[in-house]
Amino acid sequence: MKKMFLSRAKNSAGSPASGVNSTLLMGSILVAVVLLSALLSLVFTPYDPVQANPSVRLSTPSATHWLGTDQLGRDLLSRILVGARITLLVGVLSVSIAALIGTPLGIWAGMKRGAVEEVTMRASDILLAFPALLLAIMFAAIYGASTVSAMVAIGLASVPGFARVARAGTLQVMNAEFVLAARAAAQPPVRIALRHVLPNITGMLLVQCSVTFALAVLAEAALSFLGLGTPPPVPSWGRMLQESQQYWGTFPLLTIVPGVSIAVAVLGFNLLGDGLRDKFDPKLGRGKA
Amino acid sequence: MLLRLGSNLARFVLSLCVATIAVFAMMRVLPGDPAVIAAGENASPQIVASLAHQFGTDRPLVVQYWDWFSGLWRGDFGISYVTRTDISPLVADKVQVSLILVTLAMALALAIAIPAGTIAAVRHNKPSGTLISALSQLGIAIPGFLLGIVLVSFFALRLGWLPANGWVAPVEGFSSFLSRLVLPVMALAGVQSAILVRYVRSAVLGIMHEDYLRTARAKGLSPLRALAKHGLRNAAIPVLTVTSVQFSALIIGAVVIERVFVIPGLGSMLLAAVGNRDLLTVQSVVMVLVAITLIVNLLVDMLYTILDPRIRAA
Amino acid sequence: MSERQLLEVSGLSISAGERTLVSDLSFSMATGERIGLIGESGSGKSLTATALLGLLPEELSVSGTGRLHGFEHNLLTAPERAMAPLRGDEISMVFQEPLSALNPLMKIGAQVAEVLLIHRTLGTRAAARARAIELLASVQIPDPAQAANAYPHQLSGGQRQRVMIAMALANDPQLLLCDEPTTALDVTVQSQVLELISEQVTARGTGLLFITHDLAVVARMCTRVLVLNQGRIVEQGEIDTVFSAPNHPYTRALLAASDMSATDERGRLFTVATAGNYQPPALRAAAPEPVVAIPNPRPFAASFSTESSPTPTHRAIAPLITASNLSRSYHRARTSLLGPRPVVHALANIDFTVVPGERVGIVGESGSGKSTLLRILAGLDTPTGGDAVVAGTSIAGAREADLSALRSELQIIFQDPLGSLDPRMRVADIVAEPLLVPGQSLDAAARRATVLKMLNSVGLEPDSANRYPHQFSGGQRQRISIARALVNRPRILVADEPVSALDVSVRAQVLNLIADLVDEYALTLLLVSHDLSVIRHLCQRVIVMKDGRIVEAGDTEQIYINPAHPYTARLIASSLDLSEELARAH
Fold first, then answer.
1. In sequence order, which ranges of C2-64 are alpha helices (DSSP H)?
2. Does a structural domain hold residue C108?
3. Domain count, chain C
4. Which residues of C touch B10 (CB under 8 A)?
5. Local structure of residue A219 (DSSP, 8 states)
6. What is the pLDDT of residue C586?
7. Separation of alpha carbons C137 and C488, rounded Å
8. Going edge to edge, which strands form the sheet with C19-30?
9. Considering only CB atoms, which chain C residues are within 8 Å of B219?
10. Under 8 Å between Cβ of A270 and A28
C-alpha cells in the first residue's frame, strides 16, 4: 500500500501532467501535418508531381518552387505531398491488417490459455524472425514490386506484435477479480472479451497501432529505397531518396527533403505512441493495484 | 539448468524447422514451378519439362522440401535456377561479410546505449537526461540508410576522410578493411543505439523504484553504488530481451546499408537475386538470415539462464 | 539532549507540492525504548520512518529536526554524505515485503555480508561471509550455511524476513525502524517474527520504532504508542493508558473497530459511528459490571445460533453444499528430464457439507487451499478428483452451460475491492451484470430500478450508479461488490477474504453490512479468511485447512476454546487479539 502511495506521489510531482500532454500534442501535430499533406494532395498540388521540366532542374527553394526541384525539374513540394499519400496508405492498411488479425488471436490465446496460447505464441516468435522488410522483399521477389504486396507483407509481419500485446493485456485482465466476478455472474466468454477485456486493453492497442505505424513508414521507405516498393511514376519518399543517390555530394536538398519528411512522419507516430502510453498506463496500473 | 538449456535447444530446432517450412511454402509453392519461370514466357512444354527434370521440380513437393531441408543441414543450398551455379560457396562467402558488419554494429550500439540509457535514467529529471531521451527519440525516426547517406555525403564526399563505399577483406589490407567499415557500422549502430537507449532507460528507471534498491540504500550504499551493485544486473534482463528482438531488425537493416555502401554481403546477394527472380537463391539467403536471428535468440535465452537464478531453478 | 535520549524528532513535516502528508510531528525516544506508530493507510506512518532514514523520494520535501544520539547533523536535512554511513550502521530498517526487498539475483549470504563490508565492520570478504552465517544462525534460520548460498526465491516468506532482520541488526544499530514487517506474513509466522524482533532488540538494547496498522501487534511489541491520523499525531502515551482510556475520538474508534470480541446491543461490531458506546477491553476486564450498559455483549454468530430455530447441525436438513473427496492438483514445470512432472496438491480429499442458512468459515494460511476450494465451489475452477454438489449442481466435469443454475444460486465477493470491479464500467453496469444472463427478463428500466434498490441496501447513494469504481473509497468499493453479488438474490454468498484489504475502521462496517444482509436475505454464507477473529464473529461453524486438507471442523466457539488439532491450537495461539495482548501486558 505504501509503495502504491509513493509511486502516486512520484507521478504527481515527477512527470508533470503538462509533460505528458506535450508529447501527445507534439505527436498529434506532426501526424496531422502528414495527414493534411496527403489530403491536400488529393485536391491540390502546386505542380504536376510527375511532369518533368528540364529548364528548372535542380533548382534551390524559391518563390515558384518552395522546396526546389529534382534532377528532372519536378517540383519537390508536390512530390512530397503526393508521397505522403503512399506513406499513409501503406501505414493505415498494414496496421489494420496487423491489428485485425493479431488482436483477436492475442485475446483468444490469453483467454483460452493451454495449447492455443502455446501454438499462437510459438508461431508469433517464429514470425518475429521475419522482419517486415524481409517479408516485403520476399513478396517482391514472388509477385514483383507493388504497393499492395508491400502493405500485406508489412501487415503480416506486424501481426505478432499485436498478438503479443493483446495476449499480455488479456492475461492481466483475466487475472483481475472482476473477470472472475463476471464469470461467476454467468457471463459468456464472448461477452467477457468484448465488455471487459477489449475496453481494458484498448489503450495498449492504440499505443501498438502508433508504434507499428511508425515501423511501417520506415519499412515502406526502405522498400522504396531498394526499388521494391511502389513502382514509378507515383512518387514515394523512399524512392526519392534512391533517385537522389547521384547527387549526395553535390545537391543534398534532394536527400534532405524526403529524409526530413520520413523523419517527421516516424517521429510523429512514435511521439503519439509515447503520449498515449503515458496517458493510458497509469490507468491500467490503477486497475491492477 | 541442463533441462532448461535442453528445452531451449529443442525449441530452437523446432522453430528452425517451422521456419524452413514457411520459407519453402512461400518461396517455392506460391510462385509456381521455377522451371516455367526460368524457361521464359514463350518456351515450349518440352523445354519446361526438361528444365523441371533438371531442377528436380517435377518431383512431389514433399520430396523437394526434404531434399532442400536435408541439404540445409549439410550446408548445401542447391543450384541456382537462373545462374546455374552452386549457391552454397557464395552464401558462405557473403555471410562472413554480413556477420562482421552486424556484430560490430550491435557491439557499438550496446556500447553507446548502455551508458547513455543509464545516464538518461539516473538524470531523468535533469536537462542532460532529457537531452539524451530527445536525441534517441530523434534517432529512432531516422532510417538507417538515411543516416548512411548523410554520413557518406559528409565524411566521404565532402570531407574525403573515408572511402564512400566498397569492401576489402581483412586479409587483403587491414587498414582499408577498417576504413571502409567505419561508416556502414556507424550508420547501422546509430539507429540501433537510439532504440536501445530507450529500453535501457526504462529498464533502469524501473529498477530504480524497486524495493531492493531501497534496501541497498538503507544498508548505506550511495545511490550510484546501489544502482551499480544491485540494479544493473537486474536491468540487464529486459535489455537482453530487446537486444534479442532487435537483432532481426539489425540484420534487415544491414541489407539496406549494404546497398548504400555497395558492400558484397548477404543483402546485396539477396537484392541481386530478387532482381533476377532467382527464387532459390532468395529462399536460401532468407533462410540464412532467419537462422542467424533464431541462433541469436537461442544464445540470449541461454544467457538468461546464466543471469537469473529464478529461471535456473525452474 | 540527555544521555538517555536516543532520538528526538520535532516539527517533522512532509509535503508533496501543495499537499501536506505529514504535519508537525514530534516525539522522543529513550535508549532501547520501543515505540509503536499506528495509523491507517495514507496516515503518513511509512513516510515518517523513510524520512528518518533520509530516503524520501526526491519529489517530497521535508522540514523539522531529527536528532540521533551521537550524530551531529539533523537527520531530516543532513547531506547524503553524512547519512549514508549512518544507514545500516546506526539506523536500520526492515520493510514490509521481504521478497521484493531482497535482490533476486544475489545470494543471501552476500547480501548480509555486504552491509558488514560497506561499513567496514569487518575487513575481509571471508570474515564478512563467516559473520553473515553467524547472523543467519542468530535469527534462527535452519542450516544457515546452506541458506547463505541460496537465492531469495528459494526461501519462505518468514525466512526472508528473518534475513532482512539479520541484515538490519548486523552492525548493532542504535535504532531499528520496522515498517509493517509482518503484514505480508502468515499468522503463525507473524508471531515468530515478532518474537524474534522482540528478543533481538531487547538483547541489544536497540531502540525500536514499529509501524503498523494492527493495534494488537503494537500492544505486543511496544511500550509507548503514537496514533497517527491524516499526517498528525492525535494521541500519544503509554500503551496501557492510551488503549484503556483513549482521549481522542479517533483512537477510540480505532480501538472499537479493532476489537472483534466487542459488539453492540445488536450483536454488531463497533464502527467509527458507534464507537462512543465502546468500552476498551482493559476496563471491561477490570470492571466487574460494564460501566456503560452493554447488555449481554455477544458475537453476531453466537446470537444467531442460539436464537434461530433450526440448529444448523441438524442433519435432517438436506445439505446445500456437499463436497466429497474433492481434490485439485497442479502440475509444476519439470525439474528433471526423466521422471514425472512434480504434482502440487492444492486440495486433497476434502469432505464437508453445509446446510441452508448456515454460516461457515474456512480458515487457513497461504497455500492452505482455501481460495482454491472457494473457486471450485463457485464453478470458477474445476476439481481434478471427487465432486462437489452446490445447490443441486454437480461441479465435477460440468461445462459452462451446466453451471447456469449454480451461477444464479451462488455469488462471490473477492478480497481486492478495486481489482474486482472493472475500472472502465460504471457502477450501475457493474451491479447490473448478473442480471444480464440468458433467461433474465428484466428490461432496462426494471434493471435500473433493481440496481438502485440494491445500492440503497448496501448503503450507497443513488448517484453512485453513474460513477466509476476509482471514484470510491475501499470500503465503498467493497459495498459495490456486495451489491453486485446480491442483486440476483442468490441463496449462497461466498466471500474470499472480504475485509483483509480494508482499513481497520472500514472493516467493521463491511462485516456488519455482510451480517445484516445475510440476515435480511436469509443467505448461506461461506467465508474464507486468514483471520480467526473475523470468522469467530460471523460464523457458527469453522473449517480449519492446512496444506490442502481439512485438519479440523466444528462449532466455532468450541474449536476456539478447545482446539483438537495441534495446528488449530497453534493458529489460535498465534492470532493476536487486542484484549489478550492488553491483558498480557498487565
1. 45-52
2. yes
3. 3
4. none
5. H
6. 53
7. 56
8. C19-30, C5-16, C60-68
9. 87-88, 114-115, 118, 167
10. no
Q: What DSSP line would sit under C249-314, residue for residue?
A: HHHHHHHHHH-TT-B-TTSPBP-TTTGGG---HHHHHH-SS-SS--SS---HHHHHHHHSSS-TT-
Q: Which residue of B has its CA nearest to A215?
A: B141
Question: At residue B105, what is the residue type?
Answer: A
Domains and CATH numbers, chain B: 2-87 (no CATH), 95-313 (1.10.3720.10)
C473 vs C218: CA distance, rounded Å: 26
How far is the alpha carbon of A118 from chain C, nearest alpha carbon, in Å? 15
Within a domain: C284: no
Phi and psi torsions of C270, nearest 5°: -75, 140
Q: Which grid coordinates are listed for B191?
A: 539507429
Name the grid cell of B200.
Answer: 535501457
DSSP string, A54-93: GGGTTPPS-SSSTT-B-TT--BHHHHHHHHHHHHHHHHHH
Q: Which residue has the cell 538494547?
A: C205
One pLDDT digit (tens) per residue for chain B, 314 residues: 777 788 888 889 999 999 999 888 888 777 777 777 777 777 778 888 887 787 777 788 888 888 888 888 888 888 887 777 888 888 888 898 899 899 999 999 999 999 999 999 988 888 888 889 888 888 888 888 889 888 888 887 778 787 777 777 777 777 777 778 888 999 999 989 999 998 999 899 888 888 899 999 999 898 888 998 898 888 888 888 888 888 888 999 999 999 888 889 898 999 988 888 888 888 889 999 999 999 998 998 888 888 888 776 54
Residues C194 and C60 in one domain: yes
Residue type, C375: R
Interface contact flag, C434 A185, Cβ < 8 Å: yes
Q: Indicate the SS3 state at residue C230.
A: coil
Put simply, whether B208 touches A (Cβ < 8 Å) is no
- C201 lies in the same domain as C185: yes
Q: Out of C150, C170, C190, pick the residue that ends a domain.
A: C170
Residue C222 within a domain: yes
C-alpha cell at B73: 543441414
User: Which of C383, C420, C418 has its CA nearest to residue C398?
Assistant: C383
Residue C533 sits in which domain range? 301-310+358-380+402-585
What's the DSSP call for residue B158? I
- Whose cell is 434493471? That residue is C447
B149 and A255 within 8 Å at the Cβ level: the answer is yes
CA C413 to CA C427: how far, in whole Å?
15
Tell me the three cell numbers of residue C239: 500503551
Grid coordinates representing A270? 512514435
Cβ-based neighbours of C579, under 8 Å, separated by 6 or more = C259, C261, C281, C282, C284, C285
Neighbours of B134 (CB within 10 A): 11
Where is C131: in which H helix or E strand? Answer: helix C125-138
Q: Do A222 and B27 touch (CB under 8 A)?
A: no
pTM (2 d.p.): 0.84
Among B149, B158, B271, whose Cβ lies nearest the Cβ of A241?
Answer: B149
Nearest Cα to A267, choosing from B138, B146, B131, B194? B138
- Minimal CA–CA distance to C543: which of C364, C385, C369, C374? C364
* Rg, Å, chain A Cα set: 23
**How far apart (Å, rounded) are the C-alpha atoms in residues A195 and A187?**
10
| Bridge partners for C209 per DSSP | C35, C177
C499 and C454 co-located in one domain:
yes
Beta bridge partners of C549: C546
Condensed to tens digits (0 to 9), the pLDDT of residues A18-54 reads 445 788 888 899 999 989 988 888 888 777 777 777 7
- Flag whether C251 is in a domain: no
Mean pLDDT score of chain B = 86
Q: Mark out the alpha helices in A113-197 (DSSP H runs).
A: 114-128, 132-143, 147-157, 159-175, 177-184, 189-191
Of C220, C244, C268, the domain-final residue: C244
Can you tell me the distance from the alpha carbon of A214 to that of C213, in angstroms, rounded to the nearest whole number? 50
